[in-house]
Amino acid sequence: MTVVSAETPRQAAVALAKNPSIVPLAGGTDFMVGWNAGLLNGRAILDLSGIGAWKKIRRRAGGVAVGALATHTQLQRHPAVRKQFPLLVRACSLIGAAAIQNRGTIGGNIANASPAGDTFPPLAVYEATVHLISANGKRSLPFIEVFAGVKKTNLRPGELIESVELPVPKPAPTRSYFRKVGTRAAQALSKTVAAGLLWLSRDGRVIELRFALGSMAPTVRRLASTEQFLKGQKLTPPSIDRACELLAHDVSPIDDVRSTAEYRLAVSRNMLRQFLESEHD
Question: Which part of the chain is CATH 3.30.390.50?
Fold first, then answer.
């Protein structure tokens, strides 16, 4: 086994450019599953753990920049993240056991591109931006545009995730919501996972709704049809009923070993209804 260690972003980008088949290693929580299954036999490894700059969470004007190697535990403990992005903190607290949270990284989580990523609905409704680096330079993608399908991303060959930028929602949302539904209360993959932010006017009309679902399509999905329909409306029983019906326009749940498409759709509609009918977080 060949292991190449990088201590700077530039070293990592150059190593990947020289050997496009090399496998980047961040926290290793998903990497080791593939390794143990023999899926990575003969592959060279690019160890990113020496890039100290990518392990930091920095306050920025109007938000927070999270290094790609920041762990789920770091995110839970960071004061600015706890204050401004509670849905992400909640999601990180439900990822596996403490050992996984201590090792798993936000960049590795995104690059793994699982449809069931618990952090993905919060990142979608917070409208995060993912910053990428390669030997040819840097570019950025809106978080929701990173994913191309199950375990597939829109990263170009030679690109690595450098950081994730989170803008603070302004004004503060009227309501927020996060819920994960799994077979067990902890240490289970999601059957469906949801995050929502809602802004209401003084007369109770929807200024803006952001609602995202995981495990309901090949990639995390914002409910564009529902969000657009409710804009400018009051949350009456008929409008909520219609919003829940429209949810099906933006998702494509499947039957698999964890659940059925019918169950996922029913539960997701119930979660959206719960959020819209509540009067507080």
Answer: 175-277
- Strand pairing report for 3-5 and 45-47: parallel
pLDDT of residue 113: 93
Smallest CA-to-CA distance from 170 within 230, 126, 105 is with: 126
Local structure of 275: helix, strand or coil: helix
Q: Among all chains, which residue has been given the structure tokens 């507080």? A: 280
Residue extent(s) of CATH 3.30.465.10 domains in the chain: 3-167
Fold of 175-277: Enolase-like; domain 1 (3.30.390)
pLDDT over 70 percentage in the chain: 96
Spatial CA neighbour of 49 closest among 63, 69, 33: 69
Say which CATH class 3-167 falls into.
Answer: alpha beta
Query: Beta strands 45-47 and 23-25: pairing type?
Result: parallel
Average pLDDT over residues 132-140: 97
